[in-house]
Amino acid sequence: MKPQLITVAPSEFTRAAARLLRREVLEACAKGDAHLMLSGGNTPLALYALLGDDPLGELPYGKMEVFFGDERWVPPPSKDSNGGEALRLWLIKRQLPPSHFHPFFGDSPDEARTKVEAALADVAGARGEPAMDLTLLGIGDDGHTASLFPGSPALDEQSSWTAETRSPKPPLVRLTVTLPVLSASRHVVFLVRGTAKHEILSRFMDNDPDVVATRVKARRVTVLADLEASSGVALLARSQGRERSKA
Ligand code: 6PG
């Protein structure tokens, strides 16, 4: 299924992401509970901070299970820690029950992976597969998503739900869920903002197979982009449509 592209003004991006997350969480909780997998990197930090202030009204944190697509192998207090930043900016402030928080934390990468895989196995036990209701992801300039980088052996991992990878940029050691987990998601939303992402977003929307993020084959895929990242993507699509019609 082709990703749905939603474009918003840069000033509206964070609130649009918060509204989308809130809608997905409330819809999932109306049927039971909400399983979220959060993205790392810089783009979602403003979203986590906004949710921490909770301007859109309280979420049912007692019915939410929070996972992470990946982690940098750094101490949780580090500003580089995906789980640490989401905790500090949002989840501690809104008192998510600690047992509902499933980051890649541990005394070793293997221990952290084992804990996440056990939590994912609980989801699979209830749902038949480690299916999140909503997975937030970013897209790196090189097309990576989570910590699945171009050329990584982890891209071919079909049996393990997590992997240890190496990033071309520091922090080097990464822990990530694998494509089978990402593709099991009921809804994946890529959060993409800024002019620096325009080229890679165009390639993603054009389903360039060299863009790792295109390998996430979830039931429903949405790209929430601001106008800086998406400027021209729509024009590109229309122009390609014109080219195809001429062919
Ligand atoms: C990470 C992320 C990574 C990120 C992309 C985009 O740990 O860095 O999981 O996949 O989402 O690199 O990062 P930005 O949002 O900072 O551009």
Strand order of the largest sheet: 1-10-9-6-2-3-5
Mean pLDDT: 94
Total strands: 10
| Helix content class | 25-40%
What's the total helix number? 8
Shape: globular
Given as residue ranges, the uncertain stretches (5+ residues, pLDDT < 50) are: none
Query: What does the radius of gyration come to?
Result: 17 Å
Strand content: 15-25%
The arrangement of helices and strands along the chain is: EHEHEEHEHEEEHEHEHH
Structural class estimated from helices and strands: alpha/beta
Bound molecules: 6-phosphogluconic acid
Largest sheet: 7 strands, parallel
N-C termini distance: 24 Å
What is this entry, summarized?
The protein has eight helices and ten strands. It has 247 residues and is an alpha/beta fold.
Could you explain how this protein is built, in words?
The protein has 247 residues and is α/β, with parallel strands linked by helices. The protein has eight helices and ten strands. The strands form two sheets. It has a seven-stranded parallel β-sheet with strand order 1-10-9-6-2-3-5. Strands 4-8-7 form a three-stranded antiparallel β-sheet. Helix 1 crosses helix 2 (45-53) and helix 2 packs parallel to helix 3 (82-91). The chain is globular, with a radius of gyration of 17 Å. The model has no long low-confidence stretch (mean pLDDT 94). 6-phosphogluconic acid is lined by residues 39-43, 69-70, 72, 82, 138, 140, 144-147.
